[in-house]
Amino acid sequence: MEQRRFLTFIALSALVIFGWSGFVMPMLFPPPPKAEKLAEKAPDDQAADIAKPAELQPDDALVPANVIAKAGADANQPPALAPERVVEPPKLQSFPNRQILLGSTNPDEPFFLAVRLNSRGGSIETIELNDPRYRSLDDSNQPVKVVGDDPLLKLKTTDVTIEAIDRQLAALGLSLAKIDWEVVPGSESPEGVTFRFTSPDGSIQLEKAYRLPKVPGLAGKEPTKAERDNLGQGYLLDYSLTIRNLTENPREVRYSMQGPVGVPLENPENVTKYRDVRVGFVLPDGESVESSHQSATEVLDAESTGKPSVWTRPIEYVGVDATYFASLVHPVENQIKDRTIESVQSQVTYPAQEKHFSDVSIELTSVPIQLAPQGTGPKAEATHHFQLYAGPKRAHLMAAVGAADVTEYHIGWNPFFFLEPLVRLLVIPMLALLNGLHALGINYGIAIILLTIIVRTCLMPLTRKQAQSAQRMKEMQPKLKELQKKFAGDADGLRRAQLELYSKHGFNPLAGCWPVLLQMPIFFALYRALSVSVDLRRASFLWIDNLAAPDALFELPFRVPFLGWTEFNLLPILTIILFVAQQKILMPPPADEEQAMQYRMMNIMMVMMGVMFYRVPAGLCIYFITSSLWGMAERWFFDRMNEWYPAKPVEVKEKKPSAVAKFWQQALEAADRQAEQARQMPSAGANSSSKNSQNSKGR
Predict the structure, then answer these.
(1) Model's pTM, two decimal places?
(2) Which of 77, 242, 319, 410 could form a disulfide linkage to 383, CB 3.0–4.6 angstroms apart?
(3) How far apart are the first and last CA of the chain?
């Protein structure tokens, strides 16, 4: 009986255990999701999962889903002939997010740059200039960020993409740019750091190494202005990418690297130079460089059509420049003999409503890299070196990366393009003169005034002749009025008589234009210098805090319709008032109604110029105001000279006309005769017709 009860207890216990483990437990505690389900989670949830301790993560979730599926599918299959055996497949480790500063924000330190790196992607977050001269136009307490000026941009400079690794990370909703890289122990210092990342399957290891050495010769002392303007090494950040094969099989790898992102576009409403993609191609001789550029508008248009620009020629440098600053990447390896970059593609990183305000960048793609199996020596890894120039646009500084030609004094379309060669020649000496005066302790505003005085002094012989011509015109007024009465109704006769009178008195109506025409190249050269020179950026004078921008006396309470003005600029208004006053004083009185009409048209043009000049740099308005005041004072002085020392009356001589003048006079007379005959022919024809008609009636 006892045995029967014991057997019954055993049977019932087994039945309960079987039912509990087979039916109740699966219902109450379902099995964890498979790796394929993890891919459907949000990226942030995945990142949180990775941040948890490793023991909470299922091992099969740390390797790509496709690897698991293949392993399961091939479980009953015979092994492949040459399987890729991972030496030691590591787990995907998580590392804390870190920000690391290279260089210094202190201008007293022997660094020109402050580079902030982020372990998220091992990329460059920002690059600041610690020179006190380079402060933000919006906030003078903030330094200029040559890279990473817009924190909202998703792309980061030096982000790397490798398809073989990103495909594995995509299963976890991550990428090489979104995951934190390991800071290699012992590599961190104010002058450099190295980030490291190993692919989830343990087959590839990457290392990004950054180095910002102290500027040679500056250790222990504060850099001077001259040193900052002449030592290009201080604006170079060295970095490299190392790709290491961890398998026993050879493999081929290709990477893409993000170029400079977030180059600042300052005062975009009032500048003529916006962001451009700059590329310098190495010519076959290995030394010469051919440059090219693409505007933000062109980059945006090309990308909108689905055909972004791709350059495949060997490059010396590539990057982005704006009005005053540039950020350019230079591959260190010789791209003719040892090419590392196969192509460069322009891209839009932030499309603006106005196309030319868009933020643009570039992406570099490497050549295919052949890696030998692990353990075969240096061939199992490859390192590509780069230099990143981040600084002001000074030709001799950017020459360190072969980009001296990026400092182009470009202001866009120029209606006086035929003056272009002369303007280019004048810009550099004009800047040298302004900088030389400033080096003597003279404010840039005063330097512009002195420059104007120098120019007007050189033109004084011409303005003297202009004053003499105006005086002769005034003396000829009675005779001109007599001619107008004599040739009333005969415009051609009046014109010939006036020219004859001008010739007798040695008066040239165009003589007064020469001072204006000769100043035009100087005007354009100064306009360019003010528009692109980083030295004149934020140069203050009186109430003006930036001579390279409009004076902006105060904010308007409204936006001017059609013109979009939001600030009151006083200097352009003063400039136009002085232009009109100068014209009233300097121009001779009109000789006839036609000339009076010309003067009225000139007044209308002055108003139009006021609209065009409203947003020109304040330094240019200072030039015009000084020039106008000088011109009026000069005319007053010449008039007083004529009163104090009256000139001898001009002897009217009958000049023997030259051969050209004689020919021209004969041509005019022949044209007049033909015109007279043409006028008489219709009347003659009409008389003939009338006679014929009378004859026919008589018959």
Answers:
(1) 0.70
(2) 242
(3) 169
